[in-house]
Amino acid sequence: MPFCAKCGASQSDGAAFCPSCGAKSINAETSTASAEGRTSAAFSPASTGIASNVAGALAYLGGFITGIIFLSVGPYNKDPFVRFHAWQSIFLSVFYIICFAVLDVVFGAFTSVGLGFLWSLIALSLSLLRLVFLLLWLFMMFKAYNNERFSLPVIGPLAAQKAANS
After folding, report:
1. Among 15, 71, 120, 132, which lies 20 to 30 A Cα-Cα from 93?
2. Cα–Cα distance between 26 and 40 in angstroms, integer?
């Protein structure tokens, strides 16, 4: 004899609703769905995934690594919103890596030619630039979480083009 999932009261085998609290019976949902040849929405694989706005925000969390993950894992690789944010996250990460690689070479040249006394100014500017990138990453996560397709200059149109083509 089945029991109500909400209040625990016993109910008859084919009952659609609990006689005690009136909640819809899980057994009735699954038996009706199987009789119609489909699965219930409560048990479908798509309902166990995360929402596209959360996936879009998480695409920024680990930079290009999470971007690649969301581009390769279904059903997110078919969602245009998630694909856009995953590509934008990848391009933003690549820009970050290139930016700091160039700055390391430039500031390394300063120290090698005898301008090492500017090290505190160089360290402060690099720290501020890293803070700007961190705030940009948080801003992009916030926009994606709010279902906004915020496009960064230069990077955004590239991401939109790649998301449309893939």
Report:
1. 120
2. 10
